[in-house]
Amino acid sequence: MLVHLFRVGIRGGPVPGRLILPLRFQTFAAVRCSDGRHSSYLLRAVAQLRSQLRAHLLRAPPAPSQRPSAWRWVGGILVGPVLLSKCPRLCLVALCEAEEAPPACSRPCVGDSRFNWKLFWQFLRPHLLVLAAAIVLALGAALVNVQIPLLLGQLVEIVAKYTRDHVGSFLTESRNLSTYLLILYGIQGLLTFGYLVLLSRIGERMAVDMRRALFSNLLRQDIAFFDAKKTGQLVSRLTADVQEFKSSFKLVISQGLRSCTQVAGCLVSLSMLSPRLTLLLMVATPILMGVGTLMGSALRKLSRQCQEQIARATGVADEALGNVRTVRAFAMEHREEECYGAELERSRCKAEELGRGIALFQGLSNIAFNCMVLGTLFIGGSLVAGQELTGGDLMSFLVASQTVQRSMANLSVLFGQVVRGLSAGARVFEYMTLSPCIPLAGGCCIPREHLRGAVTFHNVCFSYPCRPGFQVLEDFSLTLPPGKIVALVGQSGGGKTTVASLLERFYDPTAGVVTLDGRDLRTLDPSWLRGQVIGFISQEPVLFGTTIMENIRFGKLGASDEEVYAAAREANAHEFITSFPEGYNTIVGERGATLSGGQKQRLAIARALIKQPTVLILDEATSALDSESERVVQEALDRASTGRTVLVIAHRLSTVRGAHHIVVMAHGQVCEVGTHEELLKKGGLYAELIRRQALDVPAPEMPRGPRNRHPKS
Ligand SMILES: Nc1ncnc2c1ncn2[C@@H]1O[C@H](COP(=O)(O)OP(=O)(O)OP(=O)(O)O)[C@@H](O)[C@H]1O
Known about the structure:
By secondary structure, this protein is an alpha/beta fold. The chain folds into three domains: 114-274 and 407-436, ABC transporter transmembrane region fold (Up-down Bundle); 279-388; 449-696, P-loop containing nucleotide triphosphate hydrolases (Rossmann fold), CATH 3.40.50.300. It has helices at 2-11, 21-36, 40-45, 50-59, 70-84, 88-100, 117-124, 128-165, 170-219, 223-228, 231-273, 275-322, 324-329, 333-385, 391-432, 496-503, 526-533, 548-553, 561-570, 574-579, 597-609, 627-641, 676-682, 685-694; strands at 455-463, 471-480, 485-490, 511-516, 519-520, 534-537, 615-619, 645-649, 661-666, 669-674. The chain has a six-stranded mixed sheet with strand order 6-7-8-3-9-10, with helices on both faces. The chain has a four-stranded antiparallel sheet with strand order 2-1-4-5, with helices on one face. β9 (661-666) and β10 (669-674) form a beta hairpin. α1 packs antiparallel against α5. The radius of gyration is 35 Å and the shape is elongated. The structure holds adenosine-5'-triphosphate. Adenosine-5'-triphosphate (ATP) binds next to α3 and α16.
C-alpha cells in the first residue's frame, strides 16, 4: 500500500514494479504465453487494402501524456501521511490489493486511446436503477459509520462517569446507547451487504455485455487487422482488461463513494469535537508525507530491480525447459543449472534487500502511527485536563481519526485503480469502435443456377497492408475457367497463397480487379462468397476441439447427418471415422491433436465439401503428408475437384501434372502458362523447377525486400 501510495503520489501513475514476488512469477509466465503466438497461419491465409491499416492508424488517438496528473499528486499528498500514521496491517492489506492488479506491462499498448464515455454510458444505462439503489445504500452505510465514533465517545463518557463516581447502574445507563450502537452496526452491515450485492450484479452484467460486444467486433475485423495484432493481445483485452475495468468500476462506487463520505463526515465531526486537535493533525500530515514519499520512492525502485532480476531468472528457466531437447542433445544440463542458480542467487540478494527496506518502512510506520496516537492522547489529554474536551470526546476523536485514515487509505488504492481501470476501459472500447473496411456481409449474390465459377484476375497489384512498400503481386492476370483445374506453381514466396487470399476476399487488391462470373468481387456479398461459393483447403488444417460431426458441420451450419456422412465419404474420411469407438462423436482434441495429419486433412476436405463449393482452392493441401496419406487425400481431392473450378497451389509438381492449365508465377506475375507437356517443351522456368525437383534441389526462395523487377530480369 505504501509503495503503491507513493507510486501514485510521486510518479503520477502506477508502475509495473511489484513487491510480492510469487505474483510476479505468474505475471511473467502469462505475458510470455500471450505474446508467443503470432498466428502464422492467419498471416499467410488472409489480406486487406493498404488503406485499411492507414485508416486504422489514423483513427488511433495519440498516446496519453505521461506527466503525473494533478489529482494523483493530490491523492498522494492527502493520503501519504495518513498512511504513515496508519497501522501497518492496513498498509499490508492495501499493498496486496495494489499488487494483485494485473501488470500494466502485460497489456497491449497499441494506440492507447482515450476513455470512450459515450460507449461506457451505453453499457451502464440498462443498470441505472440498480446503480442508484447501490449508491443510496453505500452512502447510507458511510453516514452510519460517521455516527459510530460519536456514540462510542458517549459510551466512554458513561464508563468514565461510572468509574469516577460509582453512582447509579452502569448497565441501565449504557443500555440504550449500546442497543442503539448495536442497531447501527446491524444496519451498517445490511447496507454494506446490499450495495455490494447490487454492485456485483451490475459489474458482472456489464462485463458480460462488454466481452460479448468486443468479441463480436473483433471477429468482424479485417484479416489485415489480425496480421498486425498478436492473438495474446486481443485475448488480453477480452479477459484482463474487462476484468480490470469491472473491478475499478465496482471499487469506485463502493469504496470511493463510501470513503469520500466518511472522510468528509468525520472531518466535520473532528473539527466540531476539537478544532485545535484537527489542526495539529493537518500540520503533522505533510511532514510524515515527505518522509514517506522519499522512502516509498527508494522502495519502488528496488522493487522494480527485483522484478527485472526475477524476470531474467525466469527467462533462463523458460529457455532451458522450452529447448530441453537441444539442452539434452548437447549434454548442457549442468551449465543450465548453474546459469539458473546464479540468476536465482541475484534475485535472492535483491529480494532480501527489498525485504529489509519494507521492514524498515513498516517499523517506521509503526512508530509514526503510535506517535500520532500518543500525540493525540497527550494533547487531547491536556485539553481534557483544561476542561476544553471531555474524555468521551477524546475517544470519539481517536476513533473518528482512525475512520478518516482508513478511508483515505482506501482512496489511495482507489486512485491507482481508477487510472488502471480507465486505461483498461479505453483499450476495451478502442476495439469496439473499430470498423472493418471489408464488411462481413452485404452486397449481391449470384443465384446458384446462374453461378458458373469463372474467376479472373485483371491486372491485379497488391501489397500487404502491414508491408505497404513490398509489392507482392504486380500487374497479375489470371483466368480460372469454370469447371477446370488450374495449378499455380513457382518459387517460394512468389505470391501463390496471396492469390488465394485475394480470391477469398481476405484482402482487396490495391489496383486491378478480381471477378467471379464477370462480377467484381467487391460488389458481391463476402459472407455468401466465403460461405457458399468458395471451399478452401490449406496445408495446415485447423480443427476445433469438438466432435468430428461438429467439425464437418462447421462448413454448413444446419447440415443434416446424412449430408455430413456424404461429405465424409467424398473426402475418404468415413471409413476411419467409423473405425473410432465413438464414430462421428469422437472429440478431436485441441486443434485436432488426437488425429493424424492425413485424417485431419480429410476432415478439412469434408468440411469444405459439405457446402458444395463452386470454386475450390487447394493450398498445398497434401504437402505435409507422407506418401501413403498423400495418396488417400489426393484421391479425395481428385474426386472433389470434378466439375468444380479448382485453383491448386503446389510445391510438389508431380501433383499438378493432370491440371488443365499450369500457371508459373515469378516476382508476383504470371510468367508461363500451359499444360505440363507444353511447359516442358518450352524449357522455361517450369522445366527448370521440374529439373530441380527431380534432382531434389530446393527451389530458390524469392528475394526479400522491395522489388519491382521484371520477372525475367
Ligand atoms: N500476411 C502477410 N503480411 C505481410 N506479408 C505477407 C503476408 N503473407 C505473405 N506475405 C509476404 O508475401 C509474399 C508472398 O507470400 P505468399 O505466401 O503468397 O507466397 P507463396 O508463393 O505462397 O510462398 P510458399 O510457396 O512458400 O508458400 C512473401 O514475401 C511473404 O513474405
